[in-house]
Amino acid sequence: MTRTLGIDLGSSLRTAAIRELDPLAADALCLDMRRHNDRADVPALVEALRRIVPSLDDVAGYTVEACVAAMRDLGMFLGSIKRHGPEPVPLAPEALPVLLELGRRTDMVPRDTVHHYTTWNPTGGRQRMYTGDIQEAYLQESVRMVFPHLREGLELSERLSGADVADPKFAVLTDELTAHVETMVASIDMVVANVGPEFFARILRAYFEEITVDGRVLLGPAAAQVPLWLIDQAIWAADNSEPEYEEFLRDSVPYSLPRWRELYGRWTDVPSVVSRLVEAYGDDPEEAERRIPALRQSAEGIARLLRVIVVFRGRHLGIARKAYDADLRLYPVGSGGASVDLLRQIIDLTRATVQLTRRPGPAAAAARAERRPA
Ligand code: HEM
Q1: Closest Cα to atom 24, ligand 1: which residue?
Q2: Shortest CA distance to 304 belongs to which of 195, 181, 210?
Q3: Which CATH number fits the domain that encloses residue 230?
Q4: What domain range is 93 assigned to?
Q5: What is the count of structural domains for the chain?
Q6: Whole-angstrom Cα distance, residue 212 to residue 45?
Q7: Angle, alpha carbons 333-335-341 (nearest 5°)
Q8: Cα-to-centroid distance, 225 and ligand 1 (Å)
Q9: CA of 85 to the centre of ligand 1 (A)
Q10: 312-366 per-position pLDDT tens digit
Q11: Residues 76 and 147 occupy one common structural domain
């Protein structure tokens, strides 16, 4: 049996290679898909899906990059069929063992994820899109542009997770992380400027519905899988969160790259950066800063990072509110399975954490203890 675990699927070289690949010879059928979707032509979508499903023997001959590209293209048809009503896998039963095998080979869930829909999707004439509408292209681009930065950001978070908050280098690392996270703000600004809430609510949202694969309900490839929440986990959320956000995180992690799932596991078992900072400040912040001069810069660096995250989340909440307005929406909750209320709660938690870092000391320790009873 071919096993290809441990391969870094997020590297830029590998990503470029995957985009080039068309292992199922699906380029033309993917273009036709937009027209079938426009007409809600489920039989045509099912026929196309059945034409491109490879045999298990074919899959055995694929490189891991080809496995990713194959999952991407099968996924576009699965999401399209579900958009118009039916569960896709029972309509193309031969797809099931292939999805399971592609999931196994790539060490990912047995359906497409936001990585397939954006980063691993070709651009230009071969771009896979459900609708072909320019607003969909903007949404894809908004996610594509942040992934390389989040990848760097998650590795920096790993370094921060192990770094001493009293080390002058701590603030330098934090500022580097902040610069990467700033792309999230540029991304959401692009969406606000170019994607109408109505287009998202009435047209696109439905393509991100969950499907069932082998008895397992799997979420669609939506932007909620962008792992900003993993940076939270390292910086503050591992031990300063609330049950609803913890649950959202747990449910989202399986859609991540293997390396990021590993980081999540690691960060869940160690104190968060903010907790270590509050601890270092102890009961007498002024005395702590006298003893450890770098502490102030560390706290200010983390506050700067969190404020950028709050700016992203504030603007994101604005568009999410419009798209999930009761008069416009077709679905009560997001395709990531969570509500706009949860987004509000996540911002409140992030803001409260900024306060912890701005006023460390006994009050911060007490506030933490209140949020996280022993
Ligand atoms: C029309 C545009 C968008 C709408 C209506 C929207 C809506 C939502 C909703 C309702 C959620 C709650 C979880 C769920 O989906 O079940 C969510 C979560 C999330 N979305 Fe979006 N979203 C949009 C665009 C984006 C973009 C472009 C990004 C990033 C580039 C993004 C990143 C996130 C993240 C990271 C979460 C998890 C919660 C968090 O970390 O704050 N979203 N979104």
Answers
A1: 223
A2: 181
A3: 1.20.58.480
A4: 12-112
A5: 2
A6: 18
A7: 35
A8: 8
A9: 23
A10: 999 999 999 999 988 888 888 887 778 899 999 999 999 999 998 876 766 666 7
A11: no
